[in-house]
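[09:14] KT: can someone run the structure on this one? pasting the chain below
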Amino acid sequence: MQLQELFEKQQQLDTYIENKRGIENNEVFEEKLLAFMVEAGELANEVRSFKFWSSKAPSEKEIILEEYVDGLHFLASIGNTLEVQPQSDSVDTEVQEASKKEITSAFLEIFGTVSLLRIEPSPAVFGSLFSAYIELAGLLGYSWEEVTAAYQEKNKENYSRQENGY
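[09:31] RB: done, structure tokens below
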């Protein structure tokens, strides 16, 4: 899936939710920021890179990917709220083995950039956040193809949830 298509699919879902809930996209910007942070926190919790006190292994790869994609939904929604158009239509995640420290550092960069985006909601800051989140996928061992396949499945599930009173 190309980046433009992902943003378009997210815009369609957002519009569906807005119409169903009677809200305007720009009314819930801060809620989207917090929702993204919560999802990124849930992802970090499943990855467990920061849990120096625990010897428990990370969650299964599928669970981590699902949490990652939950965050991607909100991140694309934030980009659409800011009317940011992807600069490129292709994404290349560099799948790599990363240390716990590298992954923890990536999470901290993401959280810091979300805080900056709240203060300075600009395309440049959003671009930094989006790039950091895409890089995180590679650090976690996921290709863009895996991410977008999981995004499409979760997108369908999100429509279903809305239809069933989620």
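[09:33] KT: thanks! The chain has a mean pLDDT of 92.
[09:34] RB: yep, looked fine to me
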